[in-house]
Amino acid sequence: NNPRILLMDEPFGALDHQTRELMQELLQGIWEAERKTVLFVTHSIAEAVKIGNRILLLSPHPGQVKAELPSVPRGASPAEAAALEAKIHDMLFADRVEHALTRAQREATTVAIMFIDLDDFKTVNDSLGHAAGDVVLREVASRLSLALRPTDTVAAGVDADAGVDAAGVSKAGVSGDAAARGAGKRTGTHASTGPH
What angle do CA 85, 64, 8 make, to 5 degrees? Predict the structure, then answer.
């Protein structure tokens, strides 16, 4: 069997980091040797940037293409890959904020957004490198996610601040137009919760 198209839905999702990277390299080798079309579905933005030629961002339900982006060229610098990853994260966060604000307006509820500044995070990046900083951010996101609902979002933003978009949470004490406008400025979206 020699298919022209390989359909791969989260094939490396359950693998440890080291094995996942090995499998990504093997897949890239197959692609370079065979030049087959590969439709690769992943929830990992880093994985999409690393192995994709074209990246399609899909909406959750119904699954529609929200954006199409070219990936970084093979052999691009880590800074180029990181810039594209940051752009994708920003787009996804802006989309989540937009959905939360729309739902809040429709259901007459509030939206809470919390921004967290990690003290001396720049020191981690400067002294140990961005890979170490990424590990710290992933650990912070993992710990924050344990305290949130499945519908909430944890996202890293500009200057390595972690933002939590907790849709519908008013008891957090950060809600209303001021928070929405702050999120809008941060994400480049129009943000308002409407009249109070």
Answer: 65
